[in-house]
Amino acid sequence: MYTEFAEIYDNVMTTLNYDDWYNFIKNILKEINFNGTDVMDLGCGTGEITLRFAKDGYKVMGVDLSSDMLRIADVKFKKENFNIPLVCQDMEELRLPVEVDLVVALFDTMNYLLTEESLEKTLENVYLHLPEGGYFIFDLVTRKLMDDLFCSGNYIEDREDIFINWEHYFDKENKIDRIYTTFFVKQKDNIYKRYEEIHDKRIYSIEEVEYAIKKVGFEFQKYQNSELAGERVFWVLKK
After folding, report:
1. pLDDT value of residue 226
2. pLDDT tens per residue, range 6-49
3. Which of 25, 38, 60, 102 has the smallest CB count inside 10 Å?
4. pLDDT score of 95
């Protein structure tokens, strides 16, 4: 996942308004009177949100499972004259010699945890990297979003230089949504290059998430939002 595709990720995601996402998070931070300085962007990808935190003066670091995505993020940061620490690590195995005031995991990152045990373990890992009063903010895709997006089983985007076909299958027994994604990206010679990705996601119920959060020991609030990228829930956890 996110290997060869990493090189075109930013082009594919041009429909995503990162400024809107970041401003939404900033509004939450204002509401909870957050005054910390150290931030971890968990599942940072190519670093768009990481970079925005850095530009706002936060001491930020990025963590992601994909070394290819981190390589692109590093180039992006250096072009902006930022030296941002990047770590290639699985969030289920998160173990870093740092403590931060805020951890964020955005853009469905937590939906890639496919079992309740994995969700709980990742919450525990984040808990260990926060001081008392530290925060963890993440979003989760809802079943409604998946049903609306893939009501016919697949979803097609036909842009000027990119054609995307998303095929969706739901494994009821394991509660896994599998998405086969095929991209055709126009090259300089007008030939289209094909990329393929498979993404497995778990759509958790509110009750499942609340149970895991309470078991780990976080306090929490939740915010519904359907304006950024479909129906999703933002969870704000406090240690």
Report:
1. 65
2. 666 766 676 789 999 999 999 999 999 999 999 999 999 999 99
3. 38
4. 95
Residue 218 is given by DSSP the state -
Domains of the chain, by residue range, sit at 4-142+204-238, 144-202
Q: Which CATH superfamily is domain 144-202 in?
A: S-adenosyl-L-methionine-dependent methyltransferases (2.20.25.110)
Instruction: Please report, as a single letter, which amino acid is at residue 216.
Output: V
- pLDDT category at 190 given cuts 50, 70, 90 is confident
CATH class, 4-142+204-238 region: alpha beta
- pLDDT class of 163 with cuts at 50, 70, 90: confident
- The Cα–Cα gap between 87 and 53 comes to 17
CA-based torsion, 222, 43, 91, 229: positive or negative: positive
pTM over 0.85: yes
DSSP notation for 87-134 = EE--GGG---S---SEEEE-TTGGGG--SHHHHHHHHHHHHHTS-TT-
Question: How far apart, in whole angstroms, are the C-alpha atoms of residue 202 and residue 172?
Answer: 11
Residues with Cβ within 8 Å of 65's Cβ and at least 6 positions away in sequence, in order, are 1, 2, 43, 88, 89, 90, 91
What 3-state DSSP class applies to 50? Answer: helix
Residue 12, SS3?
helix
**What's the CA gap between 181 and 71, in Å, rounded?**
23
